[in-house]
Amino acid sequence: MTTAQNTDVLVVGSGFGGAIAAYHLAAGGARVTVLERGPWLEGKDFEHDYKLGSSYTRAFDFTVGDGMSVLGGNCVGGGSVVYFASMPRAPRFVFERHGSIGRRMWPAAINRDTLDPWYDRVAEAMPVTTQTWDDVTYAGGLWAAACHHAGRTANPLPVAVDTERCVNCNWMMAGCRFDAKRSLLFNYLPAALAHGARVLPLHEVQRIERTDDGGYRVHYDTVDEEDYRVHTGTGAIDAKLVVLAAGAGATPVILQRSEAALGTMPRAVGRYFSGNGERLNTAVINEDRAAEVLGLTRGEGPAYGANHIGRGPTVASWDRLDGSLPEYSRYSLEQLYFPPGLGTILAQTARGEGPTWFGRHKKEILKRWSSWLTIFTMSEDDNEGVFGPPPPTGNATRISQQMLGHGSLSYVPTPNTLHGWASSDAEVADILGRDGLAEVMPWTNDVVGAYTVHPLASCRMGDDPGTSALDDGNELRGHPGIFVTDSSAIPGALTVNPAMTIAAVAERAMPGIVRAARERGIDVTYGAPAPDGATSGRRGVLPLTTPLVRG
């Protein structure tokens, strides 16, 4: 028989959804425990190396499914440690999307206007700033110049990066050695710890069951710090309230595995997964044409030759983020640095026939690696993903000692999704192919299917119980006291980087979660300022006495 520890609130995961919940609840006086399946890394641990066992493989979770592969964070701080820190707000039209269900996906209580105060709060806490053209990398500048040449516009991205600290090393995906990336390690998480929250790394949650007093018991395995396939122990923690924030690839799996003990799950648990409509194209820049067509010069060197210089995305083209356009024809195009490894495997060759992730043509373009420019599409998909039966433990069957696993997600893109990808592919080819500037080819789906670094919607919120797992306050339908605040709660594709919206939705959920905690006997209040102590971002925040509208 398992002897359980106890806490007031148990938070599963330490990314945006988990860290924000942990901070507010701990600051309000609750005893908070956070379980994180990955290691606890910080600046000195982040290595500029792609070898097995480096911070790169330790901090990522790459799950190969049937038709869709998912790359996500696996460490304290979650995706914020390994993301590119791009923090745009979702366009207004996103909240009115119907998607595959033929009706508005988002709850009626949420639109861009009602979410803006919560966006403000996140922008203050991180903080988030919009880059100037002086901050833009050379690769971003080339993308902007190509957009201008093709009659399109381009914009510097808002980011959670201290540009004064950034040394443009281009290792953002492996964690920032220089503490320039404003991950959750520098705001919400240390603030939660300062208020007494406990964060336990290498604790992988397996299932949840009810306790006799109406609370919950959360069962976990501890994971070896070097080989994630090895479980070193088991345990359980009792809590009066549970916040699930393990990510869109893990939260539904935990709930599926818990169904036998908790009772029937909402139908939408593990359904309606969205890959944020993501797509990648590689352009191999013709250095002579870059000089002639765009007027670029760098002395005696190549006009571009900048793939390894800079950092993640700095410039995006948002011309197609127009709410008057039909659904599935709207997308953003973002210049992106993607490190070698998957890039060399999945990037097609521009003159290849058939699967071209190997062979003579691939070798030819790899010789020109420094002249590559990757363009990232985020479009509107149909929420096609469905999770099958969960594996025996965790969210996937581990294949290697770190990073790589095989999951139960299946994904078959619909004609709507394919149309969005084809439209964006054509636009990228038009922008970068003009006047012989570059050879452009989409990344192949032949190796690991479609792929996403921004998984969404596998336990989504909404007003319709038939198509949403959560009500508009992020509470799991039919299971009071269980809340979901991570990317799985977002109803569908956002057409932009989703971190800012995930965080804003989590912030919005907090007054209601605090109210539910009080109803369950937890002595907690809501009203803590942004983690840096300021309050200017709190315009429009609901007072605790304001009732939430339930779906």
Descriptive overview:
- The protein has 551 residues and is an alpha/beta fold.
- The chain has one domain: FAD/NAD(P)-binding domain (3-Layer(bba) Sandwich).
- Helices cover 23% and strands 20% of the residues.
- The chain is built from 12 helices and 21 strands.
- It has helices at residues 16-27, 55-58, 79-82, 112-125, 138-149, 188-194, 251-262, 287-294, 342-346, 360-366, 415-433, 499-519, and strands at residues 5-12, 32-35, 60-66, 68-73, 129-130, 155-156, 158-159, 198-200, 203-210, 216-223, 231-244, 278-285, 315-317, 332-336, 372-378, 386-387, 397-398, 404-410, 438-442, 450-452, 482-484.
- Strands 1, 2, 8, 9, 10, 11 and 21 form a 7-stranded mixed beta sheet that branches. Strands 3, 4, 16, 17, 18 and 20 form a 6-stranded mixed beta sheet that branches.
- A hairpin with a 5-residue loop joins strand 17 (397-398) and strand 18 (404-410).
- The longest helix has 21 residues, at 499-519.
- The radius of gyration is 22 Å and the shape is globular.
- Mean pLDDT is 91; it is low at 535-551.
**How confident overall, as mean pLDDT?**
91
- If helices are DSSP runs of H or I spanning 4 or more residues, what is the number of helices? 12
What would CATH call the homologous superfamily?
Answer: FAD/NAD(P)-binding domain
- CATH architecture classification name: 3-Layer(bba) Sandwich
- Rg over CA atoms: 22 Å
Residues in β-strands, percent = 15-25%
Tally of strands: 21
Would you tell me which CATH topology applies?
Answer: FAD/NAD(P)-binding domain
